[in-house]
UniProtKB/TrEMBL annotation, chain A:
GO terms for molecular function: NAD binding; NADH dehydrogenase (quinone) (non-electrogenic) activity; quinone binding. One of its GO terms (cellular component) is plasma membrane. It is a peripheral membrane protein. NDH-1 shuttles electrons from NADH, via FMN and iron-sulfur (Fe-S) centers, to quinones in the respiratory chain. The immediate electron acceptor for the enzyme in this species is believed to be a menaquinone. Couples the redox reaction to proton translocation (for every two electrons transferred, four hydrogen ions are translocated across the cytoplasmic membrane), and thus conserves the redox energy in a proton gradient. Belongs to the complex I 49 kDa subunit family. Residues 136-381 form the NADH-quinone oxidoreductase subunit D domain. It is found in: Cell membrane. NCBIfam families: PRK06075.1, PRK12322.1. This is NADH-quinone oxidoreductase subunit D. Gene3D superfamilies: Cytochrome-c3 Hydrogenase, chain B. Keywords: Cell membrane, Membrane, NAD, Quinone, Translocase, Transport. It comes from Brevibacillus fulvus. Its EC number is 7.1.1.-.
TrEMBL record, chain B:
Its cofactor is [4Fe-4S] cluster. Residues 37-66, 79-108 form the 4Fe-4S ferredoxin-type domain. Belongs to the complex I 23 kDa subunit family. This is NADH-quinone oxidoreductase subunit I. Keywords: 4Fe-4S, Iron, Iron-sulfur, Metal-binding, Translocase. InterPro entries: 4Fe4S_Fe-S-bd, 4Fe4S_Fe_S_CS, NADH_quinone_OxRdtase_chainI. Pfam families: Fer4_7. GO terms for molecular function: 4 iron, 4 sulfur cluster binding; metal ion binding; NADH dehydrogenase activity.
UniProtKB/TrEMBL annotation, chain C:
GO terms for cellular component: plasma membrane. NDH-1 is composed of 14 different subunits. Subunits NuoB, C, D, E, F, and G constitute the peripheral sector of the complex. GO terms for molecular function: NADH dehydrogenase (quinone) (non-electrogenic) activity; NADH dehydrogenase (ubiquinone) activity; quinone binding. Residues 42-156 form the NADH:ubiquinone oxidoreductase 30kDa subunit domain. The keyword Translocase applies. HAMAP family: NDH1_NuoC. Its main location: membrane. It is found in: Cell membrane. NDH-1 shuttles electrons from NADH, via FMN and iron-sulfur (Fe-S) centers, to quinones in the respiratory chain. The immediate electron acceptor for the enzyme in this species is believed to be a menaquinone. Couples the redox reaction to proton translocation (for every two electrons transferred, four hydrogen ions are translocated across the cytoplasmic membrane), and thus conserves the redox energy in a proton gradient. It is a peripheral membrane protein. It comes from Brevibacillus fulvus. The keyword Transport applies. This is NADH-quinone oxidoreductase subunit C. The gene is nuoC.
Amino acid sequence: MLRNQPPTESVISPAPEIRTEEMLLNVGPQHPSTHGVFRLVVKIEGETIKEAVPVMGYLHRGTEKIAENLTYTQIIPYMDRLDYLAAMTNNYVLCHAVETMMGLAIPERADYLRIIAMELNRIASHLVWWGTYLLDIGAMSPFLYAFRDRESILDLLNELCGARMTFNYMRIGGVKWDAPPGWIEKVANFVQYMKKELPNYHKLVSGNEIFIHRLAGIGQYDADTALHYSLSGVMLRCTGIKWDLRRDESYSLYDRFEFEIPTAVEGDCLARYWLRLAEIEQSLRILEQAVQQFPADGEIMGKVPRVIRPPAGETYVRIESPRGEIGVYIASQGKDKPWRLKLRRPSFMNLQILPHLLVGANMANMVAILGSIDIVLGEVDA
Amino acid sequence: MLGFTKGLGFTLKKLPEKKVTHKYPDEPFPMPSRFRGIQHFSPEKCIVCNQCVRICPTDCIQLTGKPHPDPERKGKIIDTYDINFEICILCDLCTEVCPTEAIVMTNNFELAVYSRDELYKDLTWLDGNRTNIREEN
Amino acid sequence: MEEHVQLTPLERYVTRIGEKFGESAIENAYINELAKHVPTLVIQKEQWKEVARFLKEDESLHFEYLSNLHGIDYEDRMEMYYHFYSYKHRQNLAVKIVLPRENPSVCSVAEIWGGADWSERETYDLLGIHFAGHPNLTRIMLPDDWVGYPLRKDYVEYDEEV
């Protein structure tokens, strides 16, 4: 009956006394788009987010406390479990901190193996991000392509160190395993394969008009905001700041390689998407050079005392992980166990901007913004 | 509209390609030789030096020794050896420190059981787990 | 500026802060050789807030990026450790503040560097250091009804049953 009548005035514009109601919506902690056990309490009015309160700690294992009762070698497996998508960089940052304190020299071959492993891992991590992010915003098939290629990387790393994700590969002063016979060639082949495959990724997604409209201008912020919130990695570079610790505070042998630091100026989700793919490209470049320069033979462990006791004092080192700046602070009292270990986790720091970005955003964009930060909950909660 | 059709075209082109998935668990999934799976323990090699217990980051190994039955010989032999696979993270450190390679990794990785108690593996079980033993340790 | 050319970064920071806040603001200044030779300043607790603002806003210092902050329990005292970076001058700086072991409290820098917000909450949560002026100083990792501060060296797990 009603639908045949012409709409009356009151139906078109709600009467002044009808108010929309604020609603509290709980997202997570068990929610696929939060990429782990992360909870977000959002206050929405209609479709607009008024306030967002992140709640975390569901995966807090107290790594920093556990580490105080472990020797430095024993901490390495725990580092694997922080950022489990890029465990190699976590391995490295701890070893690097201890090596910096003790002034250890690392054999060249071990350094190359570390770089190859780290860059492979960086690509794997970005591929997971690429796949799951597109899954978040509604594209199914890219996920399958991303995981197919990530699988080749995991197979390579599995062959190198015997585990697919929790590598426990690096040791203080070197690495645990030398490259198996033929492994370096396999890496070289993979690099060539991936170079051919990457344009397909762009073909599949990057040019898609729906995708571009979905992300352009979403979750935007400028360089000052980024610095204010201590953002790092892609979250910082998407605002135009050309900063990559691999080049600007070079560690290991990164100064031997030629690579670009991709930056964008838009500071939105689309810019971050492009940067992560561009970083894969640069990692492939580094890998290509590393494979070429790889020394024919040499030691994989430096001269390390049997019991590792860094001198009393403190150190703080930071390196570039796929998610940003990962740092380790060690306060040592000259014992074989750290007095205090502090982990600067990039996911944790990057996530801080989320409440700021969500205020005023559309509810449907929440997942797109959260996904573009690229968090790993193992790292946020430590 | 061009970008959209391009992507669709790519998907269609991939249709006739060979599958990349494995038929696990119907077909076993082979792991590379260095793979860190469930440990194998050889009691006859063990010298009860306790190094694996000390290095274990999760404290999942428990062992006891007993004096050597032959009174002529010094040292101890292993009496009990338990690994709690509820907390073992297969980090490889125990096999790394073992001076006699009494504890080594295998490539077996299937540990799913119905009861938590079954995850306590004792000496006999670990000794019996002797397939796909890793060569390099 | 010419007469400052010879100064090392550390000397420059010390002079700059000394000129503004007096010698007493800096308790100690040294190069930490274990941490890639980072200039380290130990700042007096009472003046930290003003010094912090100065570190960020002064043109010749301009430490606009807070990389990390955390506390350390040394049993006889607490310490705060901050690591700053200046993208403008490409300089690192570490700042330390010594706090008493009993009721440690330091002023919050969350309004100067937004990135300090959660780190301060984490330090409060795990070490029990109070940050005066923090907008929302609640536990972040542990549940709100948790008893004690786990990262303290004398922490004993609270058990309701006992």
